[in-house]
Design goal:
Layout (H helix, E strand, L loop, with lengths): L13 H19 L8 H25 L3 H23 L3 H8 L7 H12 L3 H16 L3 H4 L3 E2 L2 E2 L5 H25 L3 H13 L5
Antiparallel strand pairs: 1-2
Helix pairs in contact: 1-2, 1-8, 1-9, 2-3, 2-8, 3-5, 3-6, 3-8, 8-9
Length: 207
Amino acid sequence: MVSVINLSPCGVLLEDFIENARSIAFDLEQSLGALRIPKEDSCVIPAAFYSIAIEHHRSIIELVDRRLIGSASTLMRSFFEAYVKGLWFSKCGKEADFESLREDKFERKFYLLIQDIEAVQGVGIGQVKDEYWSPMNSLTHSGLFQLGRRFNEGAIVPNYSDEFAIDTLRFASNYGFLASSKLAEIGKNVEALKAVLVVSKKYNLPR
């Protein structure tokens, strides 16, 4: 039997990239430690969203490791959405918004959340949304981006390239770092924030 080693276009083994992503997640978790969050809604609610994002980060790694890459990719939209909502409720949320959320009636459109955030902190996240939102929706809702990767030489089988898997892991690591840094900020824990930034420097994560 011939052993086939799959390399990404940059020559990186997918298995090595998985281990690297797992190390990033572990180091971020260690950096946050026993973080304490102030009890007011403006801290607790964003922290809960960031916590969801961090869990999605870990889940994506485990799913890719098991080669359940289709399932991993469906989490990308939920991951990004949780991060954006954490950012919005931290920077833009008013008491009426927190009350709507408590009643499960918060319905502000996602593009408006993006606009509100950029009005406060400048452009940036809107560019990510413009570039990736449509593919993320397609992956989550079993659209063409997902269906097109379920065929291989006439058979209906998962057919995700290593490049696609690595891009999914990169996305997870980047937003896992961002969610972790925002969580440290909410906790007003300077040491935790410094530790998270050390992780970003160690693994060359975008800030």
